[in-house]
Amino acid sequence: MSAIRRVINTAHPVESLTFWGLKPGMTIVEVDPGAKGWWTEILAPYAKATGGHYIAALGNAKDENFWKEVADTSIYGMVSANTLTPQSNDLKPIRQISCW
Questions:
Q1: 92 in a structural domain
Q2: Is the residue at 71 inside a domain?
C-alpha cells in the first residue's frame, strides 16, 4: 500500500472536504503544500475534473520541486502558485477564494 493511500485511509479526506464545504468548480488554495503533499494529490485533480482551479500558496512560487511534481496537466490540470510569506501577500489578486 502506498504512503498516500495509507494517509487517505486514516485521515478521512471525504469527511474533511465535506466539512470544509468543497464543491465542484471552486477555486482551491492549498497553503504550503510542500513539493507535493497528499492533499495536492486529491485537490488538484478534483479541481481539474470539476472545472475549478487549484492554487498553491508557497514560500517560493518558483519552487522547482513543486513544479516537477504537478507537471502532468492530464492529472493536475493548470496549477497556479503564488508566493505567501510574512513579508508579502501575493494572494491579493485572487478575488474569490472558495476553499482553503
A1: no
A2: yes
